[in-house]
Amino acid sequence: MKKQAKIDTSNKVIDIRGLKKSFGSLTVLRGVDLDIYKGENLVVLGRSGTGKSVLIKIISGLLKADEGSVKVLGEEVGTLNSKELDALRLKIGFSFQNSALYDSMTVYENLEFPLIRNVRNLSRKEINAAIEEALEDVGLSQTIHQMPSQLSGGQRKRIGIARTLILKPEIMLYDEPTAGLDPITSAEINNLINQVQAQHNTTSIIITHDLTCAKTTGDRIAMLLDGQFQRQGTFEEVFASDEERVKQFYEYNFID
Ligand SMILES: Nc1ncnc2c1ncn2[C@@H]1O[C@H](COP(=O)(O)OP(=O)(O)OP(=O)(O)O)[C@@H](O)[C@H]1O
């Protein structure tokens, strides 16, 4: 069971109303409404092709909505120019399944890279302190001078998360954080997601097909069905539904 998080329901970090998105004759999002609050872990569930990635891309301004309002950290994303979008994206940390580390760089260099690219005029001392803190956050201080090839899959995943955390994002987007990991490593990643939330009061969206991940990390679950969030609530509330597709989603997952 997930530990109760400190969620500030007076502070909406993401506010989506009536969001619609089609590609030609394919309608993907048919009027999505969603609120995400400061400090909350929101898990997005939905079968393949239901539009989870499209939603994330619209939130981060990589795709434009056809209709509706998408406010992120108080800004209407669809109206921002490219400079404003860049500034907003700096506040969003993306942890994608394929956000691989650079194999030819050490862990230190992998973490230094986003800092140098995104933050101007940092001293060596500040860079070192930020790298040490990010590594401490993910419990891997000892790997600082190692190459990615010397790390396990789970450690690489954690370094990937550290590389995102180093820019101190206000929102974290985790795309299938446990995909391809064994159950023990998955549990480590789930704990890390909760630890990031507790330590930094980060707001996170977690896209997953893994119901153990959903149950352990999600304060709230939103399930995409037919282009809308027809089910929202705690894990128990969502899966108390009698709807066949919700029940199937549960039954086809292995869960303790
Ligand atoms: N740029 C695009 N152009 C045309 N169609 C697209 C585009 N992006 C996404 N789609 C379509 O939108 C639908 C939703 O895609 P999306 O990637 O959001 O699914 P998903 O829920 O993230 O799936 P998965 O769980 O497999 O990652 C799919 O049918 C996809 O082919």
Automatic annotation (TrEMBL):
Write down the superkingdom of origin.
Bacteria
Classification via InterPro entries = AAA+_ATPase (IPR003593), ABC_transporter-like_ATP-bd (IPR003439), ABC_transporter-like_CS (IPR017871), P-loop_NTPase (IPR027417)
Query: SMART domains under this entry?
Result: AAA (SM00382)
Q: Which CDD domains match?
A: ABC_Org_Solvent_Resistant
The Swiss-Prot or TrEMBL record annotates one GO molecular function as:
ATP binding
Q: Which UniProt keywords apply?
A: ATP-binding, Nucleotide-binding, Transport
PROSITE patterns according to UniProt:
ABC_TRANSPORTER_1, ABC_TRANSPORTER_2
Q: Which Pfam families match?
A: ABC_tran (PF00005)
Residues in ABC transporter domain copies? 14-251
Protein's UniProt name: ABC transporter ATP-binding protein
Q: Which organism is it from?
A: Siphonobacter curvatus
